[in-house]
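Much of what follows relies on a compact textual record of a protein's fold. An example makes this concrete, so a full record is given next.
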Amino acid sequence: MVDADQTFVIVGGGLAGAKAAETLRAEGFTGRVILICDERDHPYERPPLSKGYLLGKEERDSVFVHEPAWYAQNDVELHLGQTVDAIDRTAKTVRFGDDGTLVHYDKLLLATGAEPRRLDIPGTDLAGVHHLRRLAHAERLKGVLAALGRDNGHIVIAGAGWIGLEVAAAAREYGAEVTVVEHGPTPLHAVLGPELGQLFAELHREHGVRFHFGARLTEIVGQDGMVLAARTDDGEEHLAHDVLAAIGAAPRTGLAEAAGLKIADRAHGGGVAVDEGLRTSDPDIYAAGDVAAFPHPLFDTRLRVEHWANALNGGPAAARSMLDRGTVYDRVPYFFSDQYDVGLEYSGWAPPGTYDEVVIRGDAGKRQFIAFWMKDGRVLAGMNVNVWDVTEPVQRLIRSRARVDTEALANPHVPLESLVP
């Protein structure tokens, strides 16, 4: 039975919000749990949108965090298709819906996620311009890629990050022609640096993807509302029937900003600034998932992590913190990707400028290896490519902060576990 003396409100119906609601009940919270989501679909996971579901290998129902009946069965009041437009921190209320419904909260969790960055160029209003963030986007893009494949059509993808590359791989599997325009010198440059970025350029070229590096889109040309081509700032023009904007995501901080909560600076990814327990500058308001910028003791900086594992683990951590369980959120950042016959897992944080060496363990040419980003002999990050069941020792090496013999680290015959102090 629900005890109405306390009400916890969760704004955001993604993985972080849904797992927070689940954790509140699992931890024995008996008060009201209200989950408000601006999408009409039940809370779902996003990785399949650019992977299995987009490729037609996973059913639509497989993306949902819980069965629809779970929410009622666990006394979670679910409001779908409802937007929260204001937080009153003094009255401790949120206002949502077309009728301006007010609901009181004792604790509030912001799990509002991120939204795709938009191309600020002429032609983005054409019918063939796409983004990929929501289930509806994936449903539309899935049909587009299938049609392009049947008709030998072309898609231009702006951005060679994870979403851009995963969609490029999916498009090629459907048979579409693909051109990727990327302002950096290699794919994934901001995450992996040039050493490993080049490997992904070679992988995609082998599968027929064309890259145009060092350029940005300046215009999408169309006729009768349809896309015909995409132009870049170096004067090139690429034939296109469709264009995907995959230039990153921005944290949805508008609600928090309007409420006067502290926002992290752009150097730390923006986002709602939280402490180690995912509390915002207001002690009764918390943030988790893509929107939260949290201090990470391992890397001595504030991070905003947009990947699945952060939502999976951050939502429950925020819920426990709301229950005053003394939570400290310090998970090693983790993500995974699948492109063609390459699967990978990445743990840690090592953007260009933070490391001084990359150590390869295995055969990078055969795309079966582990890469380690090092600083002063310590492991900052590790990525296993077509090598499995090593995430735990890789993360333990990162957490240990210990100096590692790089020759032993590069030797596949030396067990990783033996290098962990």
Remarks:
- The two ends are 49 Å apart (CA to CA).
